[in-house]
Design goal:
The protein is α+β, with helices and mostly antiparallel strands and about 160 residues long. Helices cover about 40% and strands about 20% of the residues. Helix 2 packs antiparallel against helix 3 (about 105-135). The two termini are about 30 Å apart. This is Positive regulator for alginate biosynthesis MucC.
C-alpha cells in the first residue's frame, strides 16, 4: 500500500476532498528519502494547490489529518493501461498496415494504421477511465487518522 498524509478539506457521504500535507505524495518509495521526483516536476507546471477526491469509509471530519492509501498494484496496472496499451495499439496499427499495404504506398498506409491504432487507444482510454472511476481497487482511500502523538522520523541523506 502506498500511503501519504493529507488534511480533509470537505466531506460528503462515502468520500472526502483532501489536500496532501507533504510536498510530494510519492516520497514513500525510493532509496535516500527521495522517491522518483515526478511529483516535483509536476509542481512546476501547476499553480493551484492539489486537492483530491478520495473514498472515505471511516467518516472523517473537516480539518482532520488522515493517512490516504492506494493499493500497490493499482498504480502499475493503471499506468500500463493508460500508457502502454495505447502505444502498443499505435505501433501495431502502423506495422500491420505497412505489412499488408502495397509496396508503393507503404508509408501512407502505415500512417493510416497508426491513426487507427490511436483512435482505438483513445476509445480504450475512455472505457478504462469510466471503469476505473467505479472500481474501488483504483481509488485512493482514507485508511486511518494520523495520531497526534506519533512522530515519524525520516533518514536524512548525507
Amino acid at each position: 500500500m502506498i500511503e501519504t498524509q493529507a488534511r480533509v478539506l470537505e466531506v460528503e457521504p462515502g468520500a472526502a476532498l483532501v489536500e496532501p500535507m507533504e510536498p510530494s505524495g510519492c516520497s514513500a518509495c525510493g532509496g535516500n528519502g527521495g522517491g522518483c521526483g515526478a511529483d516535483r516536476i509536476g509542481q512546476v507546471f501547476t499553480l493551484r494547490s492539489k486537492r483530491y477526491r478520495v473514498l472515505d469509509p471511516r467518516g472523517s471530519r473537516v480539518g482532520e489529518a488522515v493517512v490516504v492509501g492506494v493499493a500497490d498494484g493499482a498504480v502499475l496496472r493503471g499506468s500500463g493501461a493508460v500508457y502502454l496499451l495505447p502505444l502498443l495499439l499505435i505501433f501495431m496499427g502502423a506495422m500491420l498496415a505497412g505489412h499488408f499495404a502495397p509496396l508503393a504506398g507503404r508509408d501512407g498506409w502505415s500512417i493510416a494504421g497508426a491513426a487507427t491504432g490511436f483512435a482505438l487507444g483513445t476509445l480504450w482510454l475512455l472505457w478504462f477511465s469510466r471503469r476505473a472511476a467505479r472500481d474501488a481497487r483504483f481509488q485512493p482511500v482514507i485508511l486511518r487518522a494520523v495520531s497526534e502523538n506519533l512522530f515519524v522520523l525520516k533518514e536524512l541523506g548525507s
